[in-house]
Structure formats: C-alpha cells, structure tokens
Amino acid sequence: MKIIFRAIGKSHEPYVKAGVEEFSSRISRYYKVEWDIIPVPKNAAALSEQELKKKEGELILNTTGKEDYLVALDERGKELNSEELAAFIQARANESSKQVVFLIGGAFGIDETVMKRANYKWSLSRLTFPHQLVRLILAEGIYRACSILKNEKYHHK
Questions:
Q1: Phi/psi at 16 (5° precision)
Q2: What are the structural domain ranges in the chain?
Q3: Rounded-to-integer distance, Cα 127 and Cα 58, Å
Q4: Residue 38 neighbours by CB distance under 10 Å
Q5: Average pLDDT over residues 110-119
Q6: Pairwise CA distance, residues 55 & 58, whole Å
Q7: Which of 42, 33, 29, 28 is nearest to 5 (CA)?
Q8: More exposed terminus of the chain, fewer Cβ within 10 Å: N or C?
Q9: Top-level CATH class of 2-149?
Q10: Please, are residues 92 and 69 in contact by the beta-carbon 8 Å criterion?
Q11: pTM value?
C-alpha cells in the first residue's frame, strides 16, 4: 500500500520541512509514502472563494485515481484517536487498497465535488491550524498509527 499526502498550497515551509521529512522517512519503513503539493491556481487572487475551491477541486480530482481511497481532512469529519487511526490504516491494508490519499484542502476548504468523491472525511481536531502545520501533524499521526500497528515503543498509552 502507498500513502499519499496531497495538499493545495506552497512547498513545505522551512519551519515544518524537517519534521515532515523525518516522519515521512519513518512512515516509509512501513508503507511507500509520497507528498504531492498542488500549487494554488495562478489567478487565485482574482477568483471568488467559491471559484477558487472549484478550480482546486478540479486539480484534486484530476490527480486522484478511481481506485484511490481518498481521505478528506475536514473540520466536520470524524475524529479518531491514535489507536482508531491505526485500525483505520490496517483496514485499508486489509482491503488491499493500493493508494490511500490524505487530502489537505486549500485556504477555504475542499470543494463539494471532492467531498462527494471522498471515501472518508476525517477531522484532525476541532481546532483550526495553519495548513503547513497540519502537514506535520498529519505525518506524525500517521507514523504514530504505524508504530501502534507494529507494537513499537513510540506510542505510550
């Protein structure tokens, strides 16, 4: 199984880059991992919020395969603790999912067309975080879930 982290925005800012790379490297011990950063559309400033979300949605859907298991990060999604996330990942592996895509939307969220396509809607927290920081939190959370599945010492209960 391959885990793809997909995000709308700029490349990793220096303050998160080292952490994202570290946790991505750790995840790669269990699953293939890839980051796919989709740039914000060039004319974003001239677009309304709705138009921008629609354009971003088109970009996301164009890069998402029919077989991909798409997890949309959304504040209205289901919250999971670390053990539940581990079970979620194990369930995808048991289903022989080839690619699980964790999607971080743009500044205004994820377009409804993408939300309809999503296989699962997940909330990291009810708090709002900068999207760059969400990348680091997401990578760490996935690594923690992987370590739980292997009964490794990283996660302390």
A1: -115, -15
A2: 2-149
A3: 27
A4: 17
A5: 98
A6: 5
A7: 33
A8: C
A9: alpha beta
A10: yes
A11: 0.95
Give percent above pLDDT 90 in the chain.
Answer: 88
Backbone angles phi, psi at 88, to 5 degrees: -60, -45
The tokens for 140 are 């760490």
Please report where in the chains the tokens 């739980």 appear, as a residue: 148
**Per-residue H/E/C for the chain:** CEEEEEEECCCCCHHHHHHHHHHHHHHCCCCEEEEEEECCCCCHHHCCHHHHHHHHHHHHHHCCCCCCEEEEEEEEEEECCHHHHHHHHHHHHHCCCCEEEEEECECCECCHHHHHHCCEEEECCCCCCCHHHHHHHHHHHHHHHHHHHCCCCCCCC
pLDDT greater than 70 at residue 157: no
Distance CA 121, CA 111 (A): 13
Cα–Cα distance list, 63 to 4, 5, 68 (Å): 11, 12, 10
